[in-house]
Amino acid sequence: MTPPERVRRALEDMGPAFVKLGQVLATRVDLLEPEWIAEFGKLQDSAPPAPWTAIHQQLGEDLGAPPEEVFAAFEPEPLAAGSIAQVHRARLDDGSEVVVKVRRPGIRPILEADLRWLARLAELAEAESPEWRVLHPREIVRQFARSLRNELDFAGECRNADRIARNFAGYADQDSAAAVPGSGEPDPASEPAIIVIPRVYWQWTGERVCVQEFIGGISGRRLQAIDQAGLDRKLLARRGANAVLKMIVEDGLFHADPHPGNVFYLPGNRIAFIDFGMVGRLSEERRDELIRLMLGLVKNDARSVVDVMLEWANDGAANEQELLLEIQSFVDRYHGVPLKQLRLSEMLTDLVAIPRRHHLVLPNDLALLVKAFVTLEGLGRELDPGFDIASQALPLLERAMQARYSPAALLKRGKQSATEVFSLLASLPQDLSRLLRLARRGRLEMHIDVPHLKRLGDQLDRAANRLVLGIVVAALIVGSSIVMTVPGGPTLLGLPVFGLIGFLGAMVGGVWLLLSILRSGKGP
């Protein structure tokens, strides 16, 4: 097996926390090479079902009554079982079909223990290994812990689903027969929703259980069934791409893992998205930066692309001139390429490889964005081999660019800037007064944080501790030798007890000092 395959197998053997870690690493295209990303993408979050007695008891606690009393029908045999949760099918009293997602009993303390262990390993790796330090392992573990804890909270997942459903209320894409109200065409509100998000039944939803509408469509993995149902695969590919691009560019909240298992196709060429445990969020500022980046690529302006990347990486360690030359080469390679020949996933993979080579790490939200783009293009090409995501993205990006520089948007940003300036001017006298008052009292302090000096101080502190211990060991040896020559006092095997204790303490201290030196990697 290749090294990436061996690591994937090891993660699968070590349990749910490590499978989830691999899945998070599969989103970090800015850190790992493509072969590692592809291998970690194969990690399957599956496990044997939990015992029904434990699930039944936990459901009774969370629902307030046994499931057979809450639902008109409940299937004890799960539809699917993962390392963190399993899903059961049920029916409400009004006949609505639902799915009940249940967290595995006792899984949280196991995962929290693994997270503490991983956090400690990350601290050691970042402190001791320059090779690992450039990958920011502590930040990766923090991102992983945040993602895993969010996934444990089913109520948070359902809130994401509800918010995305509200964003798609009344949505009609360019391929829809329905048009905007007032245009003389049918009102989209009167048509079936093109994009379907499962309804959440909040009265039975909490941290450990969630109840959602059952989606009875065709899974994205069953391509032959799509053809047999008479659905238009090209239209589905375009609609799915438009929906995800809308989430990213317009809404700033997007499904971060739109793989075929999370997508269902419904009659009328409609699309349903499920499982919102992993979502990405893009602030308005981040979306503006993305537009600046796209403008730089379109206008062959490498300097704008470099400026945005350095802002994202927030790291001045890179050689800016070398980064500029490499970005210019990248822009020249893709500039003028017809859209139909452009592979967006390959372009993004090449783009994020550049900061990786310069030891720059992209923010987590951008890593999820690139992962979503790559997954989306793969999904689209499965449906339609001639699928062109760049052509689908271009109209949305053009509208976003126009909206960014529209008079209303400029006026809004101007108002925000003016408000910030006036707020700063209003607080300036108070801040100056406080600063002068502290200076008059002699309490004015300045804190400068220099990480390299802190590391040097820690090393000097450890060296001083070893030196002091060495002096103490030497003193014990000399003192114990003197005690051995003085007659009188308690003895053991004919030797003075205090002298033996001194030699024993010197031996323990010497062994500890030797081990400490060896652990530091500096040799004796």
Which secondary structure elements does this structure contain, and how are they paired or packed?
Blueprint: H1 3-14, H2 16-25, H3 34-40, H4 52-63, H5 67-70, E1 73-74, E2 80-81, E3 85-91, E4 97-103, H6 107-128, H7 130-133, H8 137-152, H9 154-167, E5 195-196, E6 209-213, E7 218-219, H10 223-228, H11 233-251, E8 253-255, E9 263-266, E10 270-273, E11 279-281, H12 284-298, H13 302-313, H14 320-334, H15 344-357, H16 364-383, H17 389-404, H18 407-440, H19 451-485, E12 491-492, E13 495-496, H20 497-519
Parallel strand pairs: 5-10
Antiparallel strand pairs: 1-3, 2-3, 3-4, 4-6, 7-9, 8-11, 9-10, 12-13
Helix pairs in contact: 1-2, 2-8, 6-8, 11-16, 11-17, 12-13, 13-14, 14-15, 15-16, 19-20
What do you see in this structure?
The chain is 59% helix and 9% strand. With 524 residues, it is of the alpha+beta class. Strand 2 and strand 3 form a beta hairpin. Helix 1 (3-14) packs antiparallel against helix 2, helix 11 (233-251) runs antiparallel to helix 16 and helix 13 (302-313) crosses helix 14.
Features:
524 residues; alpha+beta; 5-stranded antiparallel beta sheet; 4-stranded mixed beta sheet; 20 helices; globular
